[in-house]
Amino acid sequence: MTLNLDTFINMMHPITLAGDDFKYFVDQFEDIRILKYKLPGFELLTLQQKQFIYYLSQAALSGRDILWDQNFRFNINIRKTLETILEYYSGDRSSDEYKAFLVYSKRVLFSNGIHHHYSNDKLKPGFTESYFSSLINGTGQHNLPLSNGQTKDELISILSPIIFNKKLFGRKVEQRAGADIVAESAINLYENVNQKEVEAFYSGEIDPKDPHPISLGLNSKVAKKNGKIVEEVYKSGGLYGTPIDQIIMWLEKAIIVAESDMQRKEIHLLIDFYRSGDLKIWDDFNVFWAKDNEPEVDYNNGFIETYSDPLGMKATWEAIVNYTDLEATKRTRIITANAQWFEDNSPIQPQYKKEKVTGVAAKVINIAMLGGDCYPVSPLGINLPNANWIRKEVGSKSVTLANIIDAYDITSQGNGFLEEFAADQSEVDRIKKYGSISDALHTDLHECVGHASGKLREGTDPKALKNYASSLEEARADLFALYYMMDKKLLELGLLPDEDAAKASYDAYIRNGLLTQIVRIKPDKDIEEAHMRNRSAISHWVYDKGRAENVVEVFKKEGKSYIRINDYYKLRNLFGELLREIQRVKSEGDYEGGKSIIENYGVKVDPRLHVEILERYDKLNLAPYTGFVNPMLLPVYDTNGEISDVKVEYVNDYLGQMLYYGKNYSFL
Ligand code: ZN
Questions:
Q1: Order of strands, edge to edge, in the sheet holding 625-629?
Q2: How far is the CA of 445 from the centre of ligand 1 (A)?
Q3: Is residue 212 part of a domain?
Q4: How far, in Å, is the centroid of ligand 1 from the Cα of 333?
Q5: 608 located within any domain
Q6: Is residue 286 part of a domain?
């Protein structure tokens, strides 16, 4: 599972790091902005760790074409055509049509294909078909994908309808009710087959009694060839064999400098999997990978997430490389070391406290390279492996991508969002000063002790809260964090600089829950997503219960709504009260009690307020989607040809990086 931006909505407030003059912004076009991320502490890693990261990074970049081809079978030819025009077109590059072509190219490169990465709709070019022909005719042959003596005219006649005809391959993934979601989706995980044929092909393949079932069909394409349905497996010598061989080559180098025998064994299994395509070996690999939860350098590389398959079976290729954020991990260690203190002192009823609580050591990492389906749009958190039986029997690794989240947070400063929605300058200043640390601490408390706290009454069905379970569970963890944020224990432990930092976190939480998070909700819609429901429920509950004493105030200034917290200590007590109640609901399995909190406070949006907030948000003109350029990792060689260091070079040219990858990592 990857956690996307929706999960981190409360992090949408700006933050500054003192003395930080790193320029995150790289490019902006259409609905997209491009940032770069920083590699904090990379230079402090050992030479062996840097080499390990370097080889894994090369492996992460080598599978790029796999994803492009998976997304749509004409994507690579279209990309090669765009790349050749971008590099060699000899005509006027200052015309409006050329500029429109440039924007279209950037969008295609961003989406890893011609369909929008989020909406799945085919991207609409802002230039004409005849202009497209003139671009190709104004460009030498060079790297144009002309096969077997094909002429430029023939290439144009193939690509033009694919790019310009709205109806042809209009949706990457079609989920419309009544549609044949396989046959009508342009995604290239299936070819010439329909939903029924695929389902029949796989039916009966998994024994429902098998306690360790493989992830059937995860790494293959199903196609009809000469009237026969076949499965083409992604492996060395099979489908995508060439890029897979490149990945294997880099993984073999990585093995030599891996951090432990465990990691070496694990990478061997990954290579075996890429060689054989055997999903049993994929599970073996994941078992080792999940067990090995202490490496400082870690990675994901493979066919992992199935979000793009209309049938939720086949995975797209993705890769990341990361290293532990030692500073942040120090913080989470202090919290887990004091987990029992937090439990003993929490406001929940004594009979629902754990006598012995062990905090969860959630790991904070920094990304060193994004590849495949994680590039250029990065996840913010990752929880893998996906196979349910491995999660249950062995466990999973949960990580937060610190440097990616920092880039989001820091760049939202100065975009006007905070200035628009904060009540006054002192609130803005406080968030700018403390937002970063209080945000991180909230997340740590939520993850390390919040979810781990409390116990069920004997005999309570753990599934009793049903569809409200995840909203209530997130609320419980959030409330645990909010309650302790204002505790002097945090100052004693050196986790917070002063009480103003806690106030900043309360301001941000309530402002988001009462006002700003609904910018992500379409007019007339309810709040559906569990984290958003939780934040809305907490904020509206404390607002309502504190109304008599005006603890939290919603007021209008020049027709615009704002919030103000009049008593932070009373607000803290209200958080404690609700925590106690939600713990009771969970411990006793009180479905009706849980339902009433979520339904009364978490779901509905005030329509008048909604219109106002959306209008204010629209005026800010913020690009809704963000992607990243990777840094360049440059090995330094000594006189013996051995790597003696790896340097980080930050990249400021989005298109330049895309063209560089096209030249150096294209293996299909
Ligand atoms: Zn949570």
A1: 25-29, 32-36, 625-629
A2: 10
A3: no
A4: 18
A5: yes
A6: no
